[in-house]
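Usage

Read records sequentially. Each one opens with the input sequence:
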Amino acid sequence: MKTTLKLSFSVISLGCPKNQVESENIVGLFLKEGYLLKENPEEAEIIIVNTCGFIEPAIRESIEAIFDALNLKKRGKCKYLLVSGCLSQRYLKKIFQEIPEIDGLFGINASEEMLFKLPQILKGKKYLSTSLPGKIFKEAKARYFKPSSFAYLMISDGCNNRCSYCAIPLIR
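and closes with the structure output:
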């Protein structure tokens, strides 16, 4: 029986508990497909940065995390960088224009799409995709929980109020 070795991956999760749930979904699906989880991004061949794009400090933190991952890609074991989450959802084309070294850009709730498109990305194809805001969150079939005394339960995915000061309805 022939076994294929899967690549190792690490997920950097930023922002709110909704992103934490999405990161757990990404990890669960990747593990289910046989990819190897590395808690330390420096040891991973695929780094996934799940970003926040809500307020200016969170945007800066997300961009810094992307550039930190790019540095690992340049000098470390990392071969592929995937970026997902609210920042990608909100600024997809701008991010790709300014940071073309990213291999895949995905919006919110994209764990299944990310896994589905990964074989093409591993063959060198760049991939950009965002889900439509207002898409109903679908719990992933596999979710990874770190040993802990609590877990987040997602009961909604954003807000449909259109407050003038808030970007959430544009993103989620």
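Summary fields computed downstream for this record:
- The chain has five helices and six strands.
- The CA atoms of residues 103 and 126 lie 5 Å apart.
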